[in-house]
Amino acid sequence: MKRAALHSIKMHGMLDQTRFEAIGQEFADQKEAANRELEKQGAWRDFAAGAVIGTTVGVATELIIPTRAAAAIAVPLAFEVVGGAAETYMSNQTLDWLKENEFDNGKEALEGIEKARATGQQNAMAPFLNYAQANSMPEDDIWDFATDAERSYNDGRARSDTKDVRGY
After folding, report:
1. Contact predicate 7/149, CB 8 Å
2. Are 163 and 21 in contact (CB under 8 A)?
3. Which of 34, 24, 14 is closest to 166 using CA atoms?
4. Residue 9 burial (CB count, 10 A)
């Protein structure tokens, strides 16, 4: 009986580990999609800033250029340098904005996995504990079995753990 129960618990561990990885994958996919949308918004912010700066430089160049040849080169060049610096500043602001608004569901993912793990272990042990109660097994035997069962469950999880869950 004990051997069959431990084998069953190990199988539960193997199946549960796969379930845990699927839960982690779902949260990682959600995080990736949300952050991809933020990156798109950041790209549009950069575009808008570049368009405004470029237009301002162009208009200012036309309005301010003196008639001399040297000034006709130096003034637009100065405006371009200032415009490039402004675009770089705006790009840095966008990067900071992305970091501040980054989607992070790591806490929820870990809570979901821990909840699934606790439920999985309870479900794996329930049949044996019901059997032990129905057959009035001594408490010491139940404790000894519980220790073996936990080891068996974790062995099952380790056998199917692919360690390739993205993000979690």
Report:
1. no
2. no
3. 24
4. 25
Does the predicted model carry a pTM greater than 0.85? no
Residues found in the chain: 168
Cα–Cα distances in angstroms (integers) from residue 8 to residues 1, 120, 155, in the given order: 11, 12, 12
> Is residue 168 very low, low, confident or very high in pLDDT (cuts 50, 70, 90)?
very low
Rg over alpha carbons for the chain, rounded to the nearest Å, is 31
Distance in angstroms (rounded) separating the CA atoms of residues 24 and 11 = 20
Question: Each residue of 77-95: pLDDT tens digit?
Answer: 666 777 777 788 888 888 8
Buried b (16+ CB within 10 A) or exposed e, 27-65: bbeebeeeeeeeeeebeebbeebbeebeeebeeebeeee
Q: Confidence band (pLDDT; 50, 70, 90) for 64?
A: low
